[in-house]
Amino acid sequence: MQYSNPVMDHFLHPRRAGTMPDASGSGIARYPTCGDVTRIFVKVVDGVLDDARFQGTGCGPGISCASMLLDMAVGRPVESALALSARAVADALELPEAKLHCAQLAVSALRAALESLPCEGGEAR
After folding, report:
1. How far apart, in whole angstroms, are the C-alpha atoms of residue 27 and residue 109?
2. Distance (Å, rounded) from C-alpha 113 to C-alpha 84?
3. The model's pTM
4. What is the CATH number of the domain that holds 102?
5. Which of 122, 11, 123 shows the shortest CA–CA distance to 62?
6. Quick check: is 120 in a domain?
7. Residue 49 lies in a domain
8. Predicted local confidence at residue 120, as pLDDT
């Protein structure tokens, strides 16, 4: 399968890859059928996703989706980042429909990370 230029660019030059020792929260998502795993670390300042990093194992499109999603999410208020969809990521990457699950994996990991953040009252989201 031949992938779009955006998929190849984010796969060969992933943005925001790595860990984050001072993360506000983290989340992990797994796709059991193929064994792909994505973990996302987030840092939130004043209700805004200030920074994020990811680690992942899986196919090129899976890495590309995590990279693109974090490019789209950083700088947004938490509620806006939570609203990002797999379809938006897939469209931005010109991802083949057969790989939509890769975008869903990244979105699920980001949501898990953001939902792990304490609320203002100290309770988890």
Report:
1. 5
2. 14
3. 0.91
4. 3.90.1010.10
5. 11
6. no
7. yes
8. 54
